[in-house]
Each structure stands twice: as C-alpha cells, then as structure tokens.
Amino acid sequence: MLNALGLTVAKLFRFYETGKVPDFWEAPLEMMPQTFKKPSAKRLSKKGRKIHKKTFAEKEHA
Questions:
Q1: DSSP per position, 12-42
Q2: How far apart are CA 62 and CA 8, in angstroms?
Q3: Within 13 A of 30's CA, how many CA atoms are on the CB side?
Q4: How do residues 40-59 score in pLDDT, each as one tens digit?
Q5: What pLDDT, on a 0 to 100 scale, did the predictor assign at position 13?
Q6: I need a labelling partner for 61 at 20 to 30 A (CA). Which of 8, 18, 44, 50 fits?
Q7: Residue 12 in contact with residue 2, Cβ under 8 Å?
Q8: Contact 31, 42 (CB under 8 A)
Q9: 8-state DSSP, 2
C-alpha cells in the first residue's frame, strides 16, 4: 500500500527518525516536457505490412 502511494517503508522510517519530510526534486519552471516526433505515414505502413505478414504466416501454420 505504501509503495502504491509513492512512499516506501524506508522513507517512512527515515521520516520518523529525523522528523524531516523528504525533499523531492522539482523541475525548474523554464524546463519544458519532452516532445516526440510523429511517425511518418511511410513508416507506419511498413510496420503494418510487417505485422500483417507475421499474423498471416502464423495463421497458415496453425
């Protein structure tokens, strides 16, 4: 339960011993989130063809 809340048991006991809340890293305000390039249609169609061939080949052998 504690791990699901983002607080491990070790951090909890350290808080009990020191009485100090653990400091977490905060991103600077000017830092922007990472953006990813959109995949091209050509690459997506190639991937679709590979998957189609693979599933079609598996159905033939079954």
A1: HHHHHHH--PPP-----TTPPPP--PPPPHH
A2: 48
A3: 0
A4: 999 989 988 888 887 777 66
A5: 82
A6: 44
A7: yes
A8: no
A9: T
